[in-house]
Amino acid sequence: MSTHASYYVPEQSRWPILASIALFLLAFGAGTLINGITHETGGGLGLLMVLAGALLMGGILVGWFGNVIHESRAGLYSAQMDRSFRWGMSWFIFSEVMFFAAFFGALFYVRTLAVPWLGGEGDKGVSQMLWPDFTAQWPLMNPPDTEQFAGPKALVDPWHIPLLNTVLLVTSSFTITLAHHALLKDQRQRVVRWMGVTIFLGITFIGFQAYEYVEAYTKLGLTLNAGVYGATFFILTGFHGLHVTLGTVMLIIILGRILKGHFSSQQHFGFEAVAWYWHFVDVVWIGLFLFVYVI
């Protein structure tokens, strides 16, 4: 039984203030780079800040979650604390849903409003005067200012790598569910086996997406500068790829904890939290496959 039956109040920690510093370095450095500030005016400093912030945040996560694991293994957490963790993870995933909802909203705004307006919807005369050769269609292959933003030469075929990646992620949702059911039955070898398959599927997805990006840049002319289609394509798929990468790292950490015997059939919220996150990443990809690649 937990020695803190009602509520656990942790000791004062340096992690929150250090995390704030790391986030500031990441945000300020990324803003410097995105806005195209040159080395003479601080571009080199921006890259240095991003790297420093990323390294600091990585160290913070290792130390902070290490403390949480130690406290959990020491029996300091009660049922109330378990509920707090579950609510916290639920709200975190909700914030991620809103994060992607904003980008999907931008995509729909461009497709259903901005592009038709640029094509002259409501004022054809002005449109023809400004961009006489512009055709309002999606995907946008010929941006209005083709001299500054050349459109892509071709689009990614959704029925090859994107479809394969969809199969990989959907399959991984089943394999992590099988691992969860095995953990509930204390079948350790099955847990390790299905977790290993899930991690393999996640790494394979990342590899295929990297190959797709190289092909898009080198052969298709589909880059971040390829008009609004290129920008929305890489922002949506890129952030999702980052989430898959982080999710895969989380799965590897959970597998390591399973091998150390950290979880039981009754107490394994760390496993459940990562599984929730992985299912969320899978659902987002289905939306991306449909609205970015297919439709």
Can you tell me about this structure?
The protein has helices spanning 15-34, 43-73, 79-118, 124-130, 161-184, 188-220, 227-259, 269-294. It is mainly α and 295 residues long. The model has no long low-confidence stretch (mean pLDDT 87).
Write the layout of secondary structure elements.
Elements lengths: L14 H20 L8 H31 L5 H40 L5 H7 L30 H24 L3 H33 L6 H33 L9 H26 L1
Helix pairs in contact: 1-2, 3-7, 3-8, 5-6, 5-8, 6-7, 7-8
The major sheet is characterized as:
none
Q: How are helices and strands ordered from N to C?
A: HHHHHHHH
What is the number of helices?
8
Measured between the Cα atoms of the first and last residue, the distance is 54 Å
What is the second-level CATH architecture of the largest domain?
Up-down Bundle
Strand content: under 5%
Structural class, please? mainly alpha
The CATH topology annotation of the largest domain reads as Four Helix Bundle (Hemerythrin (Met), subunit A)
Q: What sort of overall outline do the alpha carbons produce when their principal axes are compared?
A: globular
Q: Let me know the CATH homologous superfamily of the largest domain.
A: Cytochrome c oxidase, subunit III, four-helix bundle
Assign the CATH class of the largest domain. Mainly Alpha
What is the tally of beta strands?
Answer: 0
Question: Cα-atom Rg, whole angstroms?
Answer: 23 Å
Helix-residue proportion = over 70%
Mean pLDDT comes to 87
- Parts with pLDDT < 50 across at least 5 consecutive residues: none
